[in-house]
Design a protein that fits this description.
199 residues; Rossmann fold; 16% helix; 5-stranded mixed sheet; 6-stranded mixed sheet; 13 strands; alpha/beta; 3 helices
């Protein structure tokens, strides 16, 4: 029932520092070594900041620095994505031309960061993305406009209106979500089998 040839489906590739960048901000939704997230840190003389969400309450998010072959890398750890987003919004509001943003994580997190970068004026090639972690989807119900988080199956009940939605491959970058449409719109109660597609 999924439409797999839809062009809006995001494509991801391995991250590498852009040599044209004057400042680099690398963001990950989980604790990962920098070299797992992005290539080229040892060849990058421009300042690098590496922000991660650790999901713990004992984080103070104060910046730390550790040296590489190039310049020192500033690291910050956040206890929740919402705290990172608050700090990111503040930083992007202060930024000027030359920043490069690199985002690694699950799709909902990636596109929340991308939306913020676009609102702050970054161009498409100034914000690069790479998927990691669960394939679960954020699904937007086209009927009641509810966002449904962490959907892993081809069919899901909307948490807003209760409609049984088919999770489509159509992805909205504006909404940072896949589209969910009523599965039994033609014949009430006639539903396709549920498949675990996005573990």
């Amino acid at each position: 029932m999924l439409v797999s040839d839809i062009k809006s489906r995001p494509q991801y590739s391995r991250l590498r520092f852009d040599p044209a960048g004057q400042r680099h901000l690398v963001i990950s939704d989980a604790a990962r070594p920098l070299e797992e997230v992005i290539d080229g840190a040892e060849d990058t003389p421009a300042p690098i900041a590496f922000w991660t969400v650790l999901g713990r309450d004992d984080i103070d998010s104060a910046p730390n620095a550790f040296p590489t072959n190039g310049s020192a890398i500033e690291t910050r750890e956040f206890r929740a994505a919402s705290h990172l987003f608050d700090r990111l919004d503040h930083r992007l509001a202060q930024e000027s031309v030359g920043l490069r943003l690199y985002v690694m994580g699950e799709e909902g997190f990636i596109w929340d960061v991308v939306r913020r970068s676009r609102a702050a004026g970054l161009e498409t090639d100034e914000c690069r993305t790479m998927h990691a972690g669960s394939l679960s989807r954020r699904v937007f119900c086209v009927h009641c406009k509810t966002m449904n988080e962490r959907v892993t199956t081809s069919l899901a009940a909307c948490t807003g209106c209760g409609a049984q939605m088919v999770v489509r491959d159509h992805f909205s970058r504006r909404l940072a979500a896949f589209m969910g449409v009523k599965a039994d719109a033609e014949v009430a109660g006639e539903l396709p089998p549920v498949e675990e597609l996005f573990p």
